[in-house]
Amino acid sequence: MPEAVEEVFPEAKYQRCTVRFCRNVFSVTLRSKVTLVARMLKAIHARESKKASHEKAKALVARLREMKLKEAAKKVEDGIEEPLTYCDFPSEHWTRIRTNNVMERLNREIRRRTRVVGCFPDGNSALMPVCARLRHAAGTQWGNKKYMNMKHLEAALEAALEAASIAD
Q1: Does residue 143 form part of some domain?
Q2: Which of 97, 123, 152 is the endpoint of a domain?
Q3: Structure-derived torsion over alpha carbons of residues 140, 20, 30, 65, reported in degrees to the nearest 10
Q4: What average pLDDT does the structure give for the chain?
Q5: What is the distance, to the nearest Å, from the Cα of residue 71 to the centroid of all Cα atoms in its chain?
Q6: In angstroms, what is the C-alpha Rg of the chain?
Q7: Ramachandran quadrant class, 21 (left: phi over 0; alpha: psi -120 to 50; beta: rest)
Q8: Which listed residue, of 10, 104, 144, 149, carries a Cα 20 to 30 Å from 37's Cα?
């Protein structure tokens, strides 16, 4: 997916869901140490800046290697940049964009509706309940709900444009 997004939207940033990242680290962690590793991973995302999060991640990698969890340390070291993309945006938006809960909820609802049918005769018949659900979500209050205050992004964009014009 990141490659497809990069091809279609070259300027877009890829934010990996922090929960999925943690689950991938847990998949190579001993069961007896998962709770401890979970607390350490949570501490990475509790930092006030991206730089502080990276420093905490480096300390976590060193600690995981001490605990002889080399595979978990490698997963954290190789993949820490993707779940920290949200730090490039205004801090007011961090809680909203660090996971993909909104999309997960919509996908779960679509899955629930399509599983009832079981087997579709063709692609169009499978597409009909999916589109109906998406139309319903877009047309109801759930689809009109304001998820983020865009004024923070507009202010950040203006600041970046001013900094770019000063540098020129």
Answers
A1: yes
A2: 97
A3: -150
A4: 83
A5: 22
A6: 20
A7: alpha
A8: 104
Residues 82, 97 contacting (CB under 8 angstroms): no
Number of domains in the chain: 2
Determine, yes or no, domain membership for 168. no
Retrieve residue 12's tokens.
């877009």
At residue 96, does pLDDT exceed 80?
no
Alpha carbon distance 55, 96 (integer Å): 23
In 3-state terms, what secondary structure has residue 74? helix
Note whether 68 and 92 are same-domain residues.
yes
Selection from 28, 52, 27, 22 nearest residue 40 by Cα = 22
CA 24 to chain centre: 13
Percent of the chain with pLDDT over 90: 32
- Residue 167 covered by a domain: no
Residue 137 burial (CB count, 10 A) = 16
Residues of the domain holding 21: 2-97
Claim to verify: residue 108 and residue 90 sit in the same structural domain: no
